[in-house]
Design brief:
One of its GO terms (molecular function) is sequence-specific DNA binding. InterPro entries: CheY-like_superfamily (IPR011006), Homeodomain-like_sf (IPR009057), HTH_AraC (IPR018060), HTH_AraC-typ_CS (IPR018062), Sig_transdc_resp-reg_receiver (IPR001789). It comes from Paenibacillus sabuli. This protein is an alpha/beta fold. A five-stranded parallel β-sheet has the order 2-1-3-4-5, sandwiched between helices. Strands 7-8-6-9-10 form a five-stranded mixed β-sheet, with helices on both faces. Helix content is 60%, strand content 11%.
Amino acid sequence: MYTILIVDDELYILTAMSNRMKEWGIYELDVYTAKNASEAIARMSETKIDIVLSDIQMPGMSGLELQKIICDRWPRCRFLFLTGYNEFDYIQFAVRKGSFDYILKSEGYEAIYEAIHKAIISIEEDYRQEDFIRSARAKLQAAQPLLRRELFLTIVKSGLSENVRTKRFEELGVQFNPSLPVLLGAGRIDQWNVPDLSDQTLLMYAIGNITEEFLGRKVHFEFIQFDVNRFFWLIQPNTESNDYDELIQFVAGYLYEVQETCSNLLKLTLSLAVASEPVHWEKLPNRYEELTFSMLFGHGSGDSSVMLKANSCEREEKAASAHRLLLKKTDTLSYYLEVGQSQEFERLYEEVAISSERIPQHLYLETYYTLATMLFSQMNRLRMDSLLSGDYKPSRLMEAGAHTCRTNAFRYLKRLSDAMFEHMAKDRHAKTSTVIERVHAYIDANIGGDLSLGRIGREVYLNPKYLCRLYKQATGKAPSDYIMEARLGRAKALLQTNEKKIHEIAREVGLEPPYFTRFFQKNTGVTPIEYREAAQRGIAGRTRDL
């Protein structure tokens, strides 16, 4: 949909042009009108306008002056002049100042349509121009540190396929080989010596610099802050030999130096751990969990430590690591629930439920209560008070022992999530129906007034383009279809029940008389006068009723 503003001081031209634009049908246009330049500027200040079609000679501010203001304030708006003046000086000045095209009124509507068509093509091409690409690249460059951190966090938290990984590395200029394994290290700040978060951020940055200074020589290196207390780094040889044994010895030898330097310079106590073998990218989530688990329950619990952690670990440790990865998916489940993606929710929930069948009892209980708490929290946030009774009352929801087995427990939580999705669907439908009702009520009450999408959108507090899409999804029609039906229905009623003149009825339904007659005949098969005469003879029902 494109927005077009027609500016002319002659009302009959303004009305005729507006009606013809609405009837064109090639493009979906939201048409606005202004009787002078001041009205045009006011309209553009509150509504995004794609194309302005303006006369040159108008009382007060001329079209040329209006063009200058619009080109300065809204440079991407296409400005078309429609005028009766075929003077070279006007044309030359207008084009030099930024006019997109110049049409003589004597050329007719086909020339106007062609100019608008060219303007729309130009608008679409604008989005593919190099300025946008250069601007996007500059912004991407500025955002690279944040984007790289998010990329590596995703890889370590949940993993990425090699294809996606390769593409993202190329986009962000990451030097790692996405097909070769990496050496993973992890660290924890055991105790902060500053309470302020901004100071902690600076110190974390300093830790990264110190770690890179010692470990990042002649290798591909990336230091990533995981959360406020934890961090990790990835290292990959940058030589063709890919000698990981030498790399591991090098890193292990310098870990203590990193720890001591941070202690002496930053007054921070760190615990550090590094894997004893390289790990493939797909296995990083599990490996990172094992390293952090080691620091939490191994030598580094509450005190500084340096560990070289072997890839083989005890069964319980592996189970706990896998379980923590499983619980992280609760956030994704919560997101799917909140945005109404029921199929994605069901797929991931099934994975969590199946995995929970094989874990120790204490880990199963943690999983159950994590899911139950997530569902309970979402019911509160989404105001689903009606569900917090009967089978889903909090006392039953928060009692894992109320279920005879794990399978039944997860089926119970699944039934609750199904009920929540159903509740949200009904709520969305009700809200959409309310919007449609308000749109219809506004149109019916203002059938002779401003029925532009912009005005209707402000009435229901929605963007015009979103309103148009929502209306079509809900009704299968465009808002303009309902406006046409409402105008036709009101016109029929007025023609049947009172003696107002045709031009008075036309204006009462928001149309100019010449266009009203054509509109009425097109949709009923008879003219307004013929319809009135038939109604008076009591045979109006034989007319075509659309």
